[in-house]
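re: ur question from yesterday

yeah so i grabbed the chain u mentioned. its 406 aa long if i counted rite. heres the sequnce exactly as i have it in my notes:
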Amino acid sequence: MPFPLPRLRAALTVLVMTVAAVLSGPVPAARAAGVALTPVTAFGSNPGQLSMYVHRPASLPASPPVVVALHGCTQSAQVYADHSGLPQVAARAGFLLVFAEQRASNNLNKCFNWFQTSDSRRGQGEAASIRQMVAHAVASYGADPRRVYVTGLSAGGAMTSVVLAAYPDVFAAGAVVAGVPYDCARDVASAYSCMNPGVDLSPARWAQRVRDAYPAWTGPWPRVAVWQGDRDTTVVPRNADELRDQWTAVHGLSPLPTRTSVIGPDSTRHEEYAAADGTVAVEVNRVPAIGHGTPVDPGTGPAQCGSTAAAYFLDSICSSHWIAGFFGLTDSGGGQTPPPGPGDGTASCWTGSNHHHVQAGRATTSGGSTWAKGSLQGMGLYNTFVTHTLKESPAGYFAVADGACP
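ran it thru and got these structure tokens back, copy pasting raw so excuse formatting
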């Protein structure tokens, strides 16, 4: 159980409810189930007391890949299946879907308990239950143990970080949607700081937390995709930077991207961090003009998926399509364009401290330093004392223009 002492659990119930509300807000209205899910009641000892559901597309190859999907707070496996677009993509690409579901008996608002060490460590609690679901999928459905992936939203995104760190021997890759770095919080209270304003650690310190999750493991490490709305005030955009720092450092890579581009119908800013062999070990996708939720793009086109008929599924880009592409399950190489240049479009100028630029989304931080978004020019220390003028042209692309901005 997440709280071994009943009295302690009762005392923290109000805090759990509050942090869950901050993570996901009101419960979406009930609706008829759409996607067919098969419940699995016997998949192991299930120390985290989670529920398991499987979605098997009509046409599935032998030894299919398996993708584990983790919903956000107040949601369910059914809600996530009906709106995330993952079943649509699974039907096109031919992979098995496993939906883990939180129970109200564990968390009243059905958040995965990513902030509890009893559930976020290898061999324990909810993390161990998710690992057992994978083992069941391999044994009972013939899934390929070499092609196991995981993705999740918000609390599910944070739990995605957990299982990637705790079970690098199980998961080949994962996608964190509006989530936080691994081991950012170890209790309910510190979860607040992780979500907003975020916790800034050096890449080396973040990476060590991942390595400490399974000290005997020497690699290879899972590949990681990060998805973040640039107007998210629940799990703020800084978390995308910290996740990038954590996993690029784990892979021994620079926190500066190998290449940048834009993808999708909304020009999502796409950053790739490539290993020496050219494999993209980490990618960061910054979705413009959306808040907290899973990016979807309803429709029947080859790169469309999902539904906006429930809360926290936001009309923008079919993230599930691109996530499957990152996993190597679909061909999502099209639609990319070269990064914009500072001379394109009409310029806007912004002057302020490095701290102000980061908070406004014009710059990012890494290891205590500040970098202009888009151009990735160094701006010095992340504090309120260093001041720069940034030129924005086109929208979302910033370059240092001290004394030279019209």
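noticed a couple things. The radius of gyration is 20 Å. also The chain is about 25% helix and 20% strand.
anyway ttyl
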